[in-house]
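Need a sequence for this fold. Nothing fancy.
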């Protein structure tokens, strides 16, 4: 029996070294930093193409510019520190869950224009809660419907944001 089973006060963050996955290592850290740096540079370039406007009158590229710039800076820091030990983990079979999450987001973006916001958002929430988060079916379904209802009430009802929706 481990300490976590005996003591409910011990949090999930208190994982012993034997239970941790192996560290990623310098090569994985460097490759990850370079990929993220590339994504950040593309985001900055794309935001400039959109037009950023000014601080008092931002244009559609302002937010992507800020996020892309932050990504460039943070990935550059990662690239400088790629040899230092860190909390990174080796890619494993559970790393595929990240791709599954990305695939559900791509699905959401592809279908929202055709069938509205409500159904894809509910399916996305259910997939993330049940499949990725391993929550119960009850929590996944009830939670997803509640999240979509709140988002609908806030963005469509209160703020009148023009998103494709069924109702």
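Here you go.
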């Amino acid at each position: 029996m481990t300490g976590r089973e005996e003591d409910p006060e011990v949090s999930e963050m208190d994982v012993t070294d034997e239970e941790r996955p192996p560290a990623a290592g310098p090569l994985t850290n460097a490759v990850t930093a370079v990929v993220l740096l590339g994504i950040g540079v593309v985001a900055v370039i794309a935001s400039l193409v959109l037009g950023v406007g000014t601080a008092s009158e931002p244009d559609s590229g302002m937010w992507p510019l800020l996020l892309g710039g932050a990504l460039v800076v943070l990935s550059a820091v990662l690239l400088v520190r790629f040899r230092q030990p860190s909390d990174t983990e080796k890619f494993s079979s559970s790393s595929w869950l990240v791709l599954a999450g990305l695939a559900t987001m791509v699905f959401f973006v592809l279908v929202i224009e055709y069938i509205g916001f409500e159904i894809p958002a509910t399916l996305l929430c259910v997939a993330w809660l049940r499949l990725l988060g391993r929550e119960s079916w009850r929590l996944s379904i009830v939670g997803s419907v509640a999240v979509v209802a709140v988002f609908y009430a806030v963005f469509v009802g209160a703020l009148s944001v023009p998103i494709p929706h069924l109702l």
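For context: Residues 1-91 form one domain.
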